[in-house]
């Protein structure tokens, strides 16, 4: 929890001295990701999972880290991260459909 607050503080500090355009872009893809996540159900296609993955993987390292995860993905992070490498890859994210 402390770590989350710390990274939030870093994000806020960065956004206040950076131009606001970069921050609002991030905020909008985060809200897009949340909308998409909420629209998923057990019949959702892998292309929707893939779109969600792209929105969430902010640093583009092909893994969703704990910090990048939101909602049900954050809640089930340990379940989805099958190989316990502290990141959820596209295949592991597909496991989300079984939890919906
Ligand atoms: Ca990432
Ligand atoms: Ca993993």
Could you give a short description of this structure?
The chain is mainly α.
Task: Tell me what the structure shows.
This protein has one domain: EF-hand (Recoverin, domain 1), CATH 1.10.238. By secondary structure, it is mainly alpha-helical. The longest helix has 20 residues, at 20-39. The mean pLDDT is 86. The chain has a two-stranded antiparallel ribbon. Helix content is 61%, strand content 4%. It has helices at residues 2-17, 20-39, 46-56, 71-75, 77-80, 90-94, and strands at 64-65, 87-88. The two termini are 26 Å apart. Bound molecules: calcium ion (2 copies). One calcium ion (CA) binds next to β1.
Q: Could you state the order of secondary-structure elements as H and E?
A: HHHEHHEH
Give the CATH superfamily.
EF-hand
Categorize the overall geometry. Answer: globular
Indicate the structural class: mainly alpha
Per CATH, the class reads: Mainly Alpha
CATH topology annotation: Recoverin, domain 1
How much of the sequence is in beta strands? under 5%
Hetero groups in this structure are:
calcium ion
Total beta strand runs = 2
Overall number of structural domains: 1
User: Strand order across the biggest sheet?
Assistant: 1-2
Q: What's the story with the biggest beta sheet?
A: 2 strands, antiparallel
CATH architecture: Orthogonal Bundle
């Amino acid at each position: 929890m402390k770590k989350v607050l710390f990274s939030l503080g870093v994000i806020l500090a960065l956004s206040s001295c950076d131009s606001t355009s970069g921050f609002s872009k991030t905020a909008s893809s985060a809200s897009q990701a949340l909308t998409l996540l909420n629209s998923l159900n057990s019949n959702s296609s892998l292309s929707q999972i893939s779109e969600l993955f792209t929105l969430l993987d902010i640093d583009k390292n092909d893994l969703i880290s704990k910090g990048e995860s939101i909602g049900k993905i954050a809640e089930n992070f340990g379940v989805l991260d099958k190989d316990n490498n502290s990141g959820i890859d596209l295949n592991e994210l597909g496991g989300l459909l079984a939890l919906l």
